[in-house]
């Protein structure tokens, strides 16, 4: 457990350093390229990523790294893999909309053991080490106590690709609108998950995600007392493409909505 805390401390430091870099450069003109019709990347994604990877390699050069922009730097003999999103919410960032974050997690074999998500514009650092609870700026956080979906505030996100997944999530969105008190779509999955952990959202669902979107946030939700599964209620791992996170109390109600729309 002590080692997990050491890993968490490194994730916190690297996330905060990268987030500070992003905040300082938010207002400047950015170089934008596209990985798909709607999936853009800026030069700051790459600069943030390079900073984080440097921090990790300085301390743990023997560890593997999986990062959104650079892919996998594999160390076959290592049991450890860092999973990095250097800028979660790139579209927001490119438009000067200040809901974005840096997400860093560490997986040991098949289990996430430490993670941090930093939202630089609110100076909010969410973090967790497995078995040690979840924290926001060093203060313990817990999920909400709302027990009825009709009283809940939910969040979601939509896939970049137009097509079946997009249409399907529009259907989920409409169904949840009829059940929940309200729904938000802020545009950063890692922060959405952390908002569930902090009790600001009562639940979150999304499709077509990647490990760097969810790895840190999922651990933070679980350590805050929440539940995270796929749409069928199976135990979640970061390599699943769909996620449902909640305060635990409304989880079965959320799954019921998702199953009815399948």
Could you describe the 3D structure shown?
- The chain is an alpha+beta fold.
- It is 36% helix and 26% strand.
- The protein has seven helices and 15 strands.
- The strands form three sheets. An eight-stranded mixed β-sheet has the order 4-3-5-6-7-8-9-10. A five-stranded mixed β-sheet has the order 12-11-13-15-14, sandwiched between helices. Strands 1-2 form a two-stranded antiparallel sheet.
- β6 and β7 form a beta hairpin.
- α1 runs antiparallel to α2, α4 crosses α7 and α5 packs parallel to α6.
- The chain starts with a helix and ends with a helix.
- The mean pLDDT is 93.
By DSSP (H or I, 4+ residues per run), the number of helices equals 7
* Number of distinct beta strands: 15
**Estimated radius of gyration:** 17 Å
Which class best fits the helix and strand makeup?
Answer: alpha+beta
- Largest beta-sheet characterization: 8 strands, mixed
CATH class of the largest domain: Alpha Beta
Approximately what portion of the residues adopt beta-strand conformation?
Answer: 25-35%
The helix fraction, in percent, is 25-40%
Q: Could you give the order of the helices and strands?
A: HEEHEEEHEEEEEEHEHEHEEH
Q: What is the domain tally? A: 2
Overall mean pLDDT stands at: 93
Give the N-terminus to C-terminus distance in angstroms.
40 Å
For this structure, the CATH topology of the largest domain is Fructose-1,6-Bisphosphatase, Chain A, domain 1
Which architecture of the largest domain does the CATH hierarchy give at level 2? Answer: 2-Layer Sandwich
- CATH superfamily assignment of the largest domain? Fructose-1,6-Bisphosphatase, subunit A, domain 1
Q: What gross morphology would you assign?
A: globular
Strand numbers in spatial order across the main sheet? 4-3-5-6-7-8-9-10
């Amino acid at each position: 457990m002590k080692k997990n805390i050491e890993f968490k401390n490194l994730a916190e430091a690297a996330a905060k350093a990268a987030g500070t870099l992003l905040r300082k450069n938010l207002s400047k003109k950015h170089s934008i390229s596209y990985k798909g019709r709607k999936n853009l990347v800026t030069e700051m994604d790459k600069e943030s990523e390079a900073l984080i990877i440097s921090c990790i390699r300085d301390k743990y050069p023997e560890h593997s790294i999986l990062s959104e922009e650079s892919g996998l730097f594999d160390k076959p003999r290592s049991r450890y893999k860092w999973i990095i999103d250097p800028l979660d919410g790139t579209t927001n960032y490119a438009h000067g909309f200040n809901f974005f974050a840096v997400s860093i997690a560490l997986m040991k074999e098949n289990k996430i053991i430490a993670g941090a998500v930093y939202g630089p514009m609110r100076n909010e650092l969410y973090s967790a080490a497995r078995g040690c609870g979840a924290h926001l700026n060093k203060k313990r956080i817990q999920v909400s106590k709302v027990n009825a979906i009709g009283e809940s505030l939910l969040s979601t996100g939509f896939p970049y690709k137009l097509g079946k997944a997009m249409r399907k999530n529009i259907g989920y969105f409409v169904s949840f609108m009829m059940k929940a008190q309200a729904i938000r779509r802020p545009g950063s999955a890692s922060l959405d998950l952390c908002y569930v952990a902090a009790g600001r959202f009562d639940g979150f669902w999304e499709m077509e995600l990647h490990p760097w979107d969810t790895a840190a946030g999922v651990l933070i939700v679980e350590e805050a007392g929440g539940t995270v599964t796929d749409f069928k209620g199976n135990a979640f791992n970061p390599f699943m493409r769909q996620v449902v996170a909640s305060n635990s109390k409304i989880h079965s109600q959320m799954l019921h909505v998702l199953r009815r729309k399948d």
